[in-house]
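QUALITY CONTROL LOG
STEP: pairwise intake check
CHECKER ROLE: data steward
CRITERIA: each record must contain a sequence immediately followed by its structure tokens, with no blank fields

ENTRY 1 OF 2
RESULT FIELD BELOW
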Amino acid sequence: QQQEQQEQQQQQQKQKQQQKQQLQAAQDYYCHLCPTSPENMYYKIYYSAYYSEYYSQYYQKYYTKAAQELNKAAAKKHDKDDPETKEAWKALTDSLKKNA
């Protein structure tokens, strides 16, 4: 029985070490993504995951919509000096600047 208990304790320690290593790896990976987040590890992972999700949604919502408008305008005329195409370019760059 003692031997079993010792083995269990060793396994638990191994698991704890693995968790620590995984946390450290996550920290190394995520820290550079959000250097301003709190030092606490949980917040670093939470914030980096949150921001990556937020920005991917933001780009899908704003960038693709503006790009679609630009493509429609460009397809209509095939002329880069066309005022409609210029307007679409302006709308695209403005929306990116505004929401950045």
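ENTRY 2 OF 2
RESULT FIELD BELOW
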Amino acid sequence: MSVRGTPPARRVRQTRVGPAAPGYYSEKLSGDRLVKCYDVAPPRVRQYVEAEIDFVLGKLCPGDSVLELGCGYEGVALRIAEKAERVVGIDTSAASLALARRLAAPDCRCEFLLMDASVLS
């Protein structure tokens, strides 16, 4: 305790310099499991996702490129690719990315990469 009766602030030091260790999303909530979650989610979840897509589509100009962090399998990148010149989606889940690649049309302007967004600079 400090003199004023409040605990001193804890200092947190980030030591990780490489990609994050596999976590909940990449191990437990990815690929087909994530599909099931969206299938049973209340309609407002789909409305929220659609509103996000509409917002981004409204901001895009011809020739724009988009980077989607944590893209998962879902069709956000696929929908945005209808208007963007190029879309790169990154995720830590190989299963979700494999599903996204299967769902993408052959002429889709999407690229899906397995990587941790925290290592981007």
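INTAKE CHECK: passed for both entries
DESCRIPTIVE NOTE, ENTRY 2: The radius of gyration is 18 Å.
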